[in-house]
Design goal:
The complex is a heterodimer of chains A (about 160) and B (about 140). Chain A is α+β, with helices and mostly antiparallel strands. Chain A has seven helices and five strands, in the order αββααααβαβαβ. Chain A folds into two domains: about 100 residues, no CATH class; about 40 residues, no CATH class. In chain A, helix 1 packs across helix 5. Chain A starts with a helix and ends in a 13-residue tail after the last strand. The chains are: A alpha+beta (about 160), B alpha+beta (about 140). Chains A and B meet through strand 1, strand 2, helix 2, helix 3 and helix 5 of A and strand 1, helix 1, strand 3, helix 3 and helix 4 of B. Strand 2 of chain A pairs parallel with strand 1 of chain B.
């Protein structure tokens, strides 16, 4: 059983490493309005187009409630975020609905990652909290943690291959 | 008795940016990666590594990452859920591209990484400008 789990973990890591994918996302809501519908709603509520434009532009420039995740997803690729694209690769293979476990390597692990180690959430929830190497943890782009599907049980420290 | 209950949770409407994301994927991110390969530029700045002399001889061309044009035509995007777009590479080019970008090519003196896939600083700036333009268009009052 333990050997099987180890194999599953390795297969998923291999899958993660070999995928090249970028995920551009906004905040996902159950009753999402399009930007046009949102503007119409604000107008019905009495806001002027100039005010709505100003609000939206501030939200975009400051990474606010509407555009925050979008702006985060657009961070240019450099050392840390090249590895981030590997993480997103897992998403294309396994989907958003799968629950993912945060796995730290437990060697020089930062307090944020230690706190997240072994916790299970959906991809969307992890995105909201901050994926590994997106700067959401103390270790920022140097983070060595990985998200693996919930079913893959971690039985030994996970070593990220180069 | 009348009771007032204050709920400390306001549900703002969520905004779907799906059409904006698809526009950015199609018009900015993918052309930027293709343009980077054409221009021999790595996605994270700097130049792509030169091919080895033996590779140039075999291909009859010194352009890195270009031989049959298959990789250039393999970039795609697809909507995923309500507010998400996935950009990736089709077919066997994905595996080969992953190898070139992440594992690199071992030469006698070093390992060459062909960092061609991702979001360049230029593409990120263009995407923000695209979103800004979209906001300005939608709030101009001209598109009723």
């Amino acid at each position: 059983m333990a050997e099987t789990n180890k194999k599953i973990t390795q297969i998923n890591l291999d899958k993660e490493l070999e995928t090249l994918s970028i995920s551009l996302s906004g905040k996902v809501g159950r009753t999402a309005l399009t930007l046009t519908e949102y503007i119409q709603l604000r107008q019905i509520q009495g806001a002027t187009l100039a005010n709505i434009r100003a609000d939206l532009l501030v939200d975009l420039s400051e990474g606010g409630r509407i555009f925050g995740e979008f702006v985060n997803a657009l961070k240019p690729t450099f050392a840390g975020s090249i590895h981030r694209f590997r993480d997103v690769g897992a998403l294309t293979e396994m989907g958003v609905e799968t629950k993912y476990r945060w796995v730290a390597v437990l060697v020089n692990t930062c307090p944020d990652c230690l706190d997240r180690h072994n916790k299970i959430r959906t991809w969307t929830d992890w995105e909201a909290d901050g994926l590994p190497r997106t700067g959401a943890t103390v270790c920022k782009e140097n983070c060595k943690c990985v998200l693996i599907p919930e079913e893959a049980i971690e039985i030994s420290p996970v070593m990220r291959a180069k | 008795m009348i009771q007032a209950k204050i709920i400390n949770k306001i549900n703002f409407p969520e905004i779907s940016l799906q059409s904006t994301l698809e526009g950015i994927a199609q018009k900015i991110i993918i052309p930027d990666m293709q343009g980077g390969i054409h221009g021999r530029m790595a996605i994270n700045g700097g130049a792509l590594p030169n091919n080895e002399p033996a590779t140039i001889k075999r291909k009859g061309d010194d352009r890195p990452l270009i031989e049959t044009g298959k990789l250039m035509g393999s970039f795609f995007f697809k909507p995923s859920g309500k507010n998400r777009v996935i950009i990736s590479i089709k077919g066997d080019r994905k595996e080969i591209g992953g190898y070139l970008q992440n594992d690199g090519i071992k030469t006698k003196s070093k390992i060459k990484f062909y960092r061609f896939f991702g979001i360049s600083k230029d593409a990120a700036d263009k995407a923000i400008a695209y979103a800004k333009k979209k906001i300005e268009e939608l709030t101009s009052g001209r598109n009723k």
